[in-house]
Amino acid sequence: MKKFLAVFDGYKMSKSSLDYAIQLTKTANAHLIGVFLDEFIYRTYSVTKVIKTYKDYEAVIKKLDEKDKIQRDKAVLQFQKACNKEKILFSIHRDKSIALQELKHESMFADIIIINKNETFTRYKEGLPTRFMKDLLGDVQCPVLVVPNISKSIDKIVLLYDGGPSSLFAIKMFSYLFGNFQDLPVEVLTVKDYYMATSRVPDNKLMREFIKRHFPQATYTVTKGIPEDKIIGHLRNHNENELVVLGAYRRSELSRWFKTSMADTLMKELNTPLFITHNK
Fold first, then answer.
1. Is residue 250's pLDDT more than 70?
2. Does the pTM of the predicted model rise above 0.90?
């Protein structure tokens, strides 16, 4: 049985993360772990401001900490109720140390992480991608499904393929985790440089042979141009609720597509779940 991690900020519970986690857990018949990163220094208020504002600041801090605890407990209860309602196997981890370090460590023992793209695990809002997400995706030990704020039932899979090992590795990992998605339409999308004469996918015979074994009904789309522009334009013109599979995030990645900027751009421009992994 596979082990999925759904990651939550107890102060800002992501309903979309919960919805996608339940949908995918049921699809893969997996065990779902609700990871609540209850970092001990993370509060909903400014301790410094309280100390400067109140003479009896210790009593005020105690009261505010209790309020924060209640809010985090409610988030855990929400997760429990949702899992029980859907009759899926689940466990709960409440990690109280440094959030990023805890999650990276847990990723070594997981098949996938499911997390909202806006997570910061701070009191402050940030632009996309957030610092937390950039740090996580740059050094995570398992695939990550980055989800938007609004959840929708997945009804199509798009596999981004540029001929490099990282894009193919991402497709392999997705197929191993979600073979049950074979009933959905699957599209292999490739963007080639303008100067390339052929309109075939890279390693056409081998790639089609491989895809046929994992996604027998897959279709292929090959276009030419700037990858970021073509991919975003292509996906925006679709009516389906797609899940997009893409390769490496690490800065050292040599793929001409799937370096940091590609994943960042898709997070900013698309409201669709992104399955991201890299070949180490």
1. no
2. yes
